[in-house]
Amino acid sequence: MGASELSAFKEKMRTKKVAHDCVKFSLELPENVLGNPIHKQLIRCSTSVAANYRASCIAQTIPSVISKMSIAIEEADESEFWIEFAMDEKIVECEKSRKLIQEVHEIASILIKSRQTQQSKRF
Predict the structure, then answer these.
(1) What is the CATH number for 101?
(2) Model-level pTM greater than 0.90?
(3) Distance between CA 52 and CA 89 in Å, rounded?
(4) Counting Cβ atoms within 10 Å, is residue 91 exposed (0-12), middle (13-18) or buried (19+)?
């Protein structure tokens, strides 16, 4: 396994772990008119980060890689939003939320750098 393959493997595992962590986090939300939509949205967008990053790793063209990474970045940002929103509404524990926000933010930053690298190859 080469360096880039190893890096991709690590990021696949990291994005999948954060999806699992977000699912567990969302299961702790209250079952009410506020908690239910946050629960659904957070599961949808956090699992989409992992799925789209994984798709970017097997994409056949650079534009396709960039497109899938862009979706993963947008979904990571949305995941961060829903966790922050739950914190703002005081329906979650802040310390646990901050750690999850930090991890999602770091993943988004890594993906942004990867996308920039891919975009530089394009031109």
Answers:
(1) 1.20.1440.60
(2) yes
(3) 29
(4) middle
